[in-house]
């Protein structure tokens, strides 16, 4: 759980930074006129590493710093990228249209809640490791204020196939990204997490048996699934070589999410943690 969250948060910037390298060169202070035709774009890759400051578990008010890594490859009409311990495969071909569609598959891992800092929460049974499989689809609009900006609305749907939470997670999201110059890139994202009943019980419930063994916690049964949280993330990347499309870049991010309803009312959150969740991080990436 902690590793998954750290990787997602620390390296979410890298796909956006790498995508910029498909564009032609331009003067340092200006943006170029537009990207080359889809058929003329070469393969590109990005690798990165960083650190992230994030909650110990969903709803925790304890924080820790953890390392992470990421990889992205744009090969022909297929784009592969990691976000945390999820692998995304974009299967739609590149398009020169201002409005384009995106779709693909997702395979990921969600580690269980184990070894957390809070001594009371740590007494709960480990939730186990979930293997989540699903897909995503969305629509992108580019060239609104300059040839390089992009607004993407998408929805992701995954389901646990390993029996850890035996439920689903649906994430509608919108991302706005643009280069501020040839060397600097910024992205702002908003999202919701909608989860199933079993997910709510697994990560936010306290069974009567657990409550009997842990006096500090009362039994708690969330009233089904629903909208678990909303969140926003700001990411900034800056090239160390003056061109964000290739070479070494630094990136930083800050994010906030808010647990809602029965999820925020769980004693794991209301009594032992906080509904307000923050992340911050930074790192270095290389695109070629």
UniProtKB/TrEMBL annotation:
Belongs to the MipA/OmpV family. Pfam families: MipA. Residues 1-20 form the signal peptide. InterPro entries: MipA. This is MipA/OmpV family protein. Keywords: Cell outer membrane, Membrane, Signal. It is found in: Cell outer membrane. One of its GO terms (cellular component) is cell outer membrane.
């Amino acid at each position: 759980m902690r590793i998954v969250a750290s990787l997602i948060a620390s390296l979410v910037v890298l796909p956006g930074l790498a995508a910029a390298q498909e564009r032609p060169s331009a003067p340092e202070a200006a943006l170029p006129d537009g990207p080359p035709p889809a058929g003329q774009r070469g393969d590109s890759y990005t690798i990165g590493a960083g650190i992230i400051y994030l909650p110990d578990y969903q709803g925790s008010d304890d924080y820790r710093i953890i390392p992470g890594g990421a990889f992205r490859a744009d090969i022909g009409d297929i784009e592969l990228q990691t976000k945390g311990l999820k692998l995304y495969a974009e299967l739609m071909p590149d398009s020169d249209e201002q409005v384009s569609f995106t779709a693909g598959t997702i395979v990921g891992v969600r580690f269980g809640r184990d070894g957390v800092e809070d001594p009371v929460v740590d007494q709960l049974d480990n939730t186990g490791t979930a293997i989540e499989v699903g897909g995503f689809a969305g629509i992108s609009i580019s060239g609104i204020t300059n040839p390089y900006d992009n607004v993407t609305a998408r929805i992701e749907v995954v389901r646990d196939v390993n029996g850890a939470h035996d439920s689903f997670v649906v994430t509608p999201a919108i991302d706005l990204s643009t280069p501020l110059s040839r060397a600097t890139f910024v992205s702002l994202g908003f999202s919701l997490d909608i989860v199933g009943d079993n997910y709510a019980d697994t990560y936010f419930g306290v069974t009567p048996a657990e409550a009997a063994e842990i006096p500090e916690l009362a039994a708690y049964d969330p009233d089904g699934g629903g909208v678990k949280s909303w969140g926003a993330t700001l990411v900034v990347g800056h090239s160390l070589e003056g061109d964000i499309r290739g070479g070494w870049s630094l990136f930083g991010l800050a994010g906030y999410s808010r647990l809602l309803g029965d999820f925020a009312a769980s004693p794991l959150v209301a009594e032992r943690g906080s509904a307000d969740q923050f992340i911050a991080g930074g790192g270095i990436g290389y695109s070629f």
